[in-house]
Design brief:
The protein has 252 residues and is mostly helical. It has eight helices and two strands.
């Protein structure tokens, strides 16, 4: 039914889904790169789950469903993916310093076990003054007399910046080929979690949940043991009347 909502929201459904188009769900729009995003999210989730003890029930259940969904999304490859992957690896090997993923970056590329994926993080809060001054980072300026080193640094900032030469050459990144609408429909059917945009939201939430569970150390024993019978009230069928037995037909 969710797939039908996407079709109803699109006036002219085509071979590919147009990024940014309505999906039929309020506030949810077509994702531009669902495959690479899910691979990056699932890979990072599995990496963080490995930091939890193996006997943790949460780790065992989360790993099982994450491995399953990662296998599903990796099994569906867009047309021209192999050629794109080869070109991407060659560019990565040629310019490794330009594709290092920074923790504070909004977008980056992650490579894990041969997988190449574009990741998108949550944009950090931006000071309005930085926008006004063309992105110049605002730094607190101490009052008082400047030292000789501080004055030399200020002169350097005010002068011409040295040229980076060949290192400043722009390197463009080729985006992964998009999945066709039918391929996305197959992924949604196999995962069974609604639209692929909804699956991405769930994956993002699971990634944040892993950090919260690790911080809470949910695998440890409770400091205060529950009183015997404390949770009996919430057991299933505790307050449900038993089913009435059917009447017995007596033979006359």
């Amino acid at each position: 039914m969710r797939t039908a909502l996407r079709l109803f929201a699109s006036v002219k459904p085509g071979r590919f889904l147009e990024p940014g188009n309505p999906t039929g769900l309020t506030g949810l729009y077509t994702h531009p790169a669902p495959r690479s995003t899910l691979i990056a999210l699932y890979t990072e989730t599995l990496d963080k789950l490995r930091t939890l003890p193996e006997h943790s029930v949460y780790r065992q259940s989360a790993e099982a469903i994450t491995h399953h969904r990662l296998k599903v999304i990796e099994s569906v490859k867009p047309e021209g993916y192999e050629e794109w992957s080869k070109r991407a690896k060659e560019k990565l090997e040629k310019h490794p310093e330009l594709f290092k993923r920074q923790a504070s970056s909004e977008e980056g590329m992650s490579v894990h076990d041969g997988r190449i994926a574009i990741t998108r993080g949550t944009p950090s809060e931006t000071d309005d003054r930085e926008v006004e001054w063309d992105g110049e980072r605002m730094v607190a300026t101490p009052e008082g007399v400047r030292t000789q080193d501080e004055r030399a640094y200020q002169r350097l900032l005010g002068g011409n910046q040295p040229s980076l030469g060949a290192a400043s050459e722009a390197v463009t990144w080729e985006q992964e080929p998009p999945l066709e609408a039918t391929q996305i429909g197959d992924v949604e059917s196999q995962i069974g979690g609604g639209l692929i945009e909804e699956v991405i939201q769930v994956a993002e939430g699971e990634l944040m949940l892993v950090e919260s569970m690790a911080k809470s150390k949910v695998w440890e024993e409770l400091v205060e043991k529950p009183v015997p019978g404390q949770w009996d009230y919430f057991q299933r069928d505790q307050h449900t009347l038993p089913t009435q037995e059917p009447p017995v037909n007596k033979k006359s």
